[in-house]
Amino acid sequence: MQGIMRISYYLVPGLFFLIALYAYIKKVPVYATFVEGATEGLKTAWRILPFLLGMLVVIGIFRASGALALFTGILEPLFRFLGIPKDAIPLLLMRPLSGSGSLALVSDIITTHGPDSYIGRLAAIVQGSTETTFYLLAVYFGSVGVKRYRYALALGLSADMVSFIAAAFFCRLFFS
Amino acid sequence: MVDFVWLLLLLAGIITGLLTGQIEQVSQAAFASAGAAVKLCIEMAGMLAMWLGIFRLAEKSGLLSAIARLASPLIRWLFPGLPKTNPAFPAIAMNLAANMLGLGNAATPFGLKAMGHLQELNPDKAVASSYMITFLALNTTCVTLIPALVISLRSQAGSALPAEIMLPAFCSSLTGTIFAVLFDRWLRRRGQMRN
Question: Distance, in angstroms, between B163 CA and closest chain A CA?
């Protein structure tokens, strides 16, 4: 297991090494070309900022207000029906909104209930198998200036929901 | 949809803040998040610049077109009708590969590169195209082989077998991805019938 984790450390330097060496062999002006790409990266980051800021501000307000606890109460019967324990609900609500927020909740669940409890494993699986949908949409669409998302958010959020239910299912299947 | 959710988060947050007497924290959170967004963007700028520099090297040397040829059957199936010579091909391939390997900070630059090429094909620049939505659905559900962060979190918390969640996490992300691809196809076809 440690081996697999270690591979990911070698991956990035290895990739850099191979790409740069190959480009040099192919007589590409390596430094000038790198700088050209990097310039484009900086421009992209600048374009993303207003979109990201718009999302993060409302998510920040929502988090700080305690609305999460309110929604947890409302949604509890539905989640109980799906076999998801009450303590995991805030995590499921937070997961598409904020990566750092949900990671903090996972860490909290793991310390409170233990990493090898059902809910501890479930939290880790949820965090590891889904993405921060709102953040991704803001960044990806923001980078090209798309303002109308059509059905993208509905699709992303319903896929998150399916992943959550699958996480609960596989967690029971593998560990009971 | 995005307007509705944005407004819901904002209004629900402010109303709950008023009712629970947390309005001070709410206004602090608004300022803190605005600052955090700028900080995040600056950090991301560095990463984007670095990866897109490397990406440009791979592009100019012809390495990317080789990768694109390898991944082309899969991408053509996921994005029906996308011209085979489109430069989005290698960017999509690199993005999906980085996602699977758990290299989140490399996936984003490649993904944004792909979005740029998809935008060139987009007739209405302010509205998301179907290709873009499919691409985002693949990214939000991303099939993950190595969820390195949670494994290290579990190991720190003293788990007996920190990596045992790898297979169930893979299965549930795969379920999410399959659902997203199928649901996306259905939504796309429904949209075409309407037009």
Answer: 7
Contact B48 A4 (CB under 8 A): no
Eight-state DSSP code of residue B82: -
Give the DSSP letter of residue B160: S
Eight-state DSSP code of residue B124 = S
pLDDT digits (tens, 9 = 90+) for B164-179: 999 999 999 999 999 9
Mean pLDDT of chain A: 90
Q: What does pTM read for this prediction?
A: 0.89
Tokens of A173: 């299947």
Residue A158, CA atoms < 13 Å, CB-side half-sphere? 13
Q: Are B33 and A60 in contact (CB under 8 A)?
A: yes
Task: Please give the angle made by the CA atoms of B155, B159 and B162, to the nearest 5 degrees.
Answer: 55
Q: Which of A62, A163, A86 is nearest to B8 (CA)?
A: A62
Which residues, 6+ apart, have CB-to-CB distance to B102 below 8 Å? A8, B144, B145, B146, B147, B148
Compute the distance between CA of residue A157 and CA of residue B185 in angstroms, rounded to an integer.
16
Extract the tokens encoding A135: 């953040």
Predicted confidence band of residue A38 (pLDDT cuts 50, 70, 90): very high
Q: How far is B122 from chain A (nearest CA, A)?
A: 10
DSSP string for residues in B45-63: HHHHHHHHHHHHHHHHTTH
Chain A residue with minimal CA distance to B123? A146
DSSP B161: S
Over the stretch B64-105, which tens digit does the pLDDT of each residue have? Answer: 888 888 888 999 999 998 988 888 999 999 999 888 877 777
A125 to B168: CB separation less than 8 angstroms, yes or no: yes
Contact B149, A103 (CB under 8 A): yes
* Contact list, A130 vs chain B (CB under 8 Å): 140-141, 173, 176
**Does the distance separating the beta carbons of B29 and A61 come in below 8 Å?**
yes
No. of helices (H) and no. of strands (E), chain A: 8, 0
